[in-house]
Write a structure and sequence with these properties.
The complex is a heterodimer of chains A (326) and B (427). With 326 residues, chain A is an alpha/beta fold. Chain A is 37% helix and 14% strand. Chain B is an alpha/beta fold and 427 residues long. The longest helix of chain B is centred in the middle third of the chain and has 18 residues. Classes of the chains: A alpha/beta (326), B alpha/beta (427).
């Protein structure tokens, strides 16, 4: 294991695994967005399928429960004509003492081509990529508090469709930054794509140490943090944060950091509102904003399919190309 | 068995001796440095020309995994590895299974070590029963069978009242308390240094204050109780400064750091490589430099290995699902000698950190090359360049992030109580 080569890229800088945005060149991120653009029309066709991954087997390997992310990955894979196997490992194998590596060896025996992995431990996707056989591509669908790169890319796609260019944009991410893999991936994506400014807004209890080193500005006051902002990303607040002394109550959180129309008025008049979902109405965002004209929350869900199609086909494509060369 | 070691450069920090001379060993003792004793006929002669000779190393913290974790390593396997690394005395923390909180475990460990005859294995007794932090252990019984100190291993005593009583009791019976400074609440389930790296990686962080708050509490208790105390494997620059101040104020405290903390930092974690998962965690560059300064200035007296051999499975998995610890016996001396090359320590001072300083803290009549002393001797070739790798590692634990490192200087012979227990193949 060395830093010298990027595990995610092939020798000619094509996507091989998709584990984290960190360390990926801007060209690759742009290619994801461009490819997603070309796939987004597939949904409008009468037959919503392209034959790009016909004959390939994709395993959705979810060690942590998730319906939405898994469903969009499944849809994306099916629209690329791949065969999909859904495995909810959290309730099956590992609870019986089977190790992560044993689960992997069993899946290898089923001759799959790609693992889409979600796991509650940071670094799990990287671990799997390092230990899977060479012909398998690994897509990270969320690992611990580390990364959720496909979510970040669909957010970037949504932003780019709305604003076209990242350079002038000021983006604020509001909420539980400390535990958020989404926020970490968004920050890397935004700084790589050249956004003007990235802000994180939360009380100190939910801001990780030295987050400034990732290239963001920290605000503890929502109104001040939203001033002059083009994009407001609201994060989901997990209920268990009330237990660990991170926050006193949902009520106080909504009062201080919940996005209301009144607080949104501090952002630019044409600012958009995004949320990775599922939303807690009345906790981090009020319904009138979530369902309002500036909310792109449902568009994000739709875009998720095209972006995941793009990432899957790119990762698989570079593998096939590499195999043809050898 | 009579052995003469000829023409080596003998460095004995305790007596500030540094000269090329011969060492005469008989019946487990050093009978003479320099002069050939009358009627001394050697059974074996070792030519140590060009080599450095110093006392056998005393490692203040090494887990040999026996009893309880023989699938990771055994006293036989690890004492053999120790001999190959110039280590002749090992102190085992009490977190064995069963816990070293009664005389029989101490005796069992000593018995196993005597059978393997590679090194001396001393036990650190449990401070509280079962290491549970509720009831103080039978410290006198532990001391009477040879426990050299008492500690609660990696389970800091949360209850301050119990800690106070344990210290008072240890003090009454002239026992040194070994402390691992970690606030259990601030540590939580985290596994990496809290900072820019853990933030980036989405790993829960162990803040610096997890160590400094524990040091502050324990220093206050030491002052109150008057107990002699030793802080084990400190990891932060701030904690070292607190120890320096306490020593200046006259508190009876000492400290050690583990060799890997003097070379590695949290920068290594970038690839989620579980080999770098240790406790306390690898900290910042500033902390590593602070530990080095502490050693140089003497606020830290000892370098230990904090040896924790593991089976392969324990280190296979996502970073925070793995067991912390490094298999470290064989890199203790090489990493310490690197500090000499890096001009952090003088040669004699570096050797002192591994020999007479730990002997002093443990109250042992070891760690010195002088007439009448126990013949624990390490012969070291400072020019031998070698690579530490899968083939050369002797420990049952292969979990070392230093595999693949090249070192200059290697142990060629180890004498334990006057017997040659290790000799490098081509030496």
């Amino acid at each position: 294991m060395s830093y010298r080569h990027n595990l995610q890229l092939t020798a000619d800088k094509k996507l091989r695994h998709f584990l984290t945005i960190e360390g990926l060149p801007r060209a690759v991120l742009t290619e994801v967005l461009d490819t997603a653009e070309s796939f987004s029309s597939v949904a409008d066709q009468a037959v919503k399928k392209v034959p790009i991954l016909r004959g390939k087997t994709i395993v959705n390997l979810f060690f942590e429960n998730s319906t939405r992310t898994r469903t969009t990955f499944e849809l994306a894979a099916k629209r690329l004509s791949a065969d999909v196997l859904n495995l909810n490992v959290s309730v099956s194998a590992t609870s019986k003492g089977e190790s992560l590596l044993d689960t992997l060896s069993n899946l290898e025996a089923m001759q799959s081509d790609m693992f889409v992995v979600r796991h509650n431990k940071s670094g799990a996707a990287q671990f799997i990529a390092q230990n899977a056989p060479a012909h398998i591509s690994v897509i990270n669908a969320g690992d611990g508090c580390h990364a959720h790169p496909t979510q970040a890319m669909l957010d970037m796609f949504t932003i780019r469709r709305h604003f076209e260019d990242f350079y002038p944009l000021k983006v604020a991410i509001v909420g539980d930054i400390l535990h958020s893999r989404v926020a970490r991936s968004q920050i890397h994506a935004l700084t790589t794509l050249g956004a003007n400014e990235v802000r994180v807004i939360a009380p100190k209890t939910l801001i990780p140490t030295d987050i400034q080193t990732m290239g963001v500005h920290v605000f503890h006051d929502l109104k001040r943090g939203l001033e002059d902002v083009d994009v407001v990303i609201i994060l989901r607040l997990q209920k268990e944060r009330m237990d660990g002394a991170f926050l006193p109550s949902e009520k106080e959180y909504f009062h201080t950091y919940g996005l209301t129309q009144e607080k949104l008025a501090f952002a630019k008049p044409d600012a958009i509102v995004m949320h990775p979902g599922p939303i807690n109405r009345g906790v981090e965002i009020e319904s009138i904003v979530a369902d309002g004209p500036r909310s792109l929350i449902l568009k994000q869900v739709t875009n998720g399919i095209a972006v995941r199609m793009a990432i899957m086909s790119m990762a698989m494509g570079s593998y096939s190309a590499a195999r043809e060369e050898t | 068995m009579r052995i003469v070691i000829r023409n080596g450069r003998v460095i004995n920090p305790k007596t500030k001796f540094d000269a090329v001379t011969d060492i005469y060993v008989a019946d487990g003792k050093i009978v003479s440095l320099s002069n050939n004793p009358v009627e001394f006929i050697a059974d074996q002669e070792i030519d140590a020309s060009g080599k450095t000779i110093f006392p056998g190393i005393i490692d203040m913290c090494a887990r040999l995994r026996e009893p309880g974790f023989e699938y990771k390593a055994t006293i036989a396997s690890e004492t053999a590895a120790a001999a190959s690394a110039g280590i002749t005395t090992l102190c085992c923390p009490p977190d064995t299974v069963p816990v070293t909180d009664n005389a029989s475990v101490v005796e069992m460990i000593r018995y196993r070590a005597q059978q393997s005859r590679n090194a001396r294995v001393l036990s650190i007794g449990a401070l509280t029963r079962g290491l549970e932090g509720n009831q103080i252990s039978e410290m006198v019984a532990l001391k009477e069978v040879g426990a050299v100190a008492v500690s609660n291993a990696l389970k800091p005593v949360k209850n301050t009242l119990v800690m106070r009583r344990a210290m008072e009791y240890a003090c009454s019976h002239d026992l040194t308390v070994f402390l691992f400074a970690e606030d259990p609440w601030l540590k939580g389930t985290a596994c990496a240094h809290e900072g820019a790296i853990s933030t980036r990686m989405g790993l829960e962080g162990i803040p610096e204050i997890a160590e400094t708050i524990a040091v502050a509490r324990d220093l206050a208790l030491i002052e109150q109780t008057g107990v002699r105390a030793h802080f084990c494997h400190l990891s932060t620059a701030k904690a070292i400064r607190m120890i320096a101040r306490a020593r200046f104020d006259g508190l009876p405290v000492s400290a050690d750091v583990s060799a890997h903390q003097l070379h590695l930092t949290d920068m290594e974690l970038g690839e989620f490589d579980a080999l770098y998962h240790v406790r306390p965690p690898l900290r910042s560059i500033r902390d590593r430099d602070g530990l080095r300064v502490g050693l140089k200035e003497g606020s830290v007296q000892v370098i230990c290995s904090d040896h924790q051999p593991h089976d392969v499975d324990a280190k296979t998995g996502p970073f925070n699902a793995t067991a912390p610890g490094i298999s470290a016996l064989e890199t203790l001396l090489p990493l310490t000698m690197r500090l000499v090359n890096d001009k952090v320590l003088g040669l004699s001072q570096a050797i002192a950190c591994l020999t007479c300083e730990p002997a002093k803290i443990l109250g042992l009549d070891l760690g010195s090359l002088e007439e009448g002393a126990t013949a624990d001797i390490c012969i070291y070739d400072p020019k031998h360049v070698w690579s530490f790798n899968q083939e050369s590692i002797q420990s049952d634990g292969l979990n070392s992030p230093f595999l693949g490192w090249e070192f200059e200087g290697r142990v060629t012979h180890t004498l334990f109580e006057g017997s040659l227990v290790y000799q490098l193949d081509d030496a």
